[in-house]
């Protein structure tokens, strides 16, 4: 927020909006990290907790939607304030999707058998750590309105994409050589795909943070 408003209630609404986004982001960060832990450890109880907590993220998104609509209807925000509200609406939707992907990873992890036999199991958690860090940094950039950090998040997405391509090739080879493990290998490939999508969504958040902070979306040629 660039300046104080004449109506204190407007400031309170904007502060509340930012607080809700921060709470959603924090929960999504935890969900991604827990999903990785579930994959590595095969912890079914943790998987169930991820699935249950996703409903809380969904509820927060609904609260953001209602508050943003109320702000637009009652306060008619302009310039920086309008960008703030629009960015919050979009970011809430993206963060909700990150929660969904974490839930999908938790469900898929429960279907993976004999996980220690999969060579690519060493790659997927490493990919997940980068994706989780992207989510953390994107939300940190949002809290600080840090366009520089947002651009760093965007540039990191290429690492996640490269991991996914490597894991895809490894898993296809593994399935050809070990047909009896195709079912579990397919679930692991599904996990890797969801982590790749989490990286994409963290990038989307970073792009909207850049927009909220500068009034312009980052251009690919700038990287």
Automatic annotation (TrEMBL):
Pfam families reported for this sequence: PhoU
PANTHER family per record: PHOSPHATE-SPECIFIC TRANSPORT SYSTEM ACCESSORY PROTEIN PHOU (PTHR42930:SF3)
The protein's name in its UniProt record: Phosphate-specific transport system accessory protein PhoU
Family classification: Belongs to the PhoU family.
Cellular location(s): Cytoplasm
SUPFAM superfamilies: PhoU-like
One BP annotation, GO: negative regulation of phosphate metabolic process
Annotated ranges, domain PhoU: 21-107, 126-209
Keywords: Cytoplasm, Phosphate transport, Transport
Signal peptide residue numbers: none
Main localization, broad class: cytoplasm
Gene coding for it: phoU
Quaternary structure annotation from Swiss-Prot or TrEMBL: Homodimer.
InterPro entries, per the entry: PhoU (IPR028366), PhoU-like_sf (IPR038078), PhoU_dom (IPR026022)
Cellular component GO terms held in the UniProt record: cytoplasm
Function text: Plays a role in the regulation of phosphate uptake.
Gene3D superfamilies cross-referenced by the UniProt entry: Phosphate transport system protein phou homolog 2, domain 2
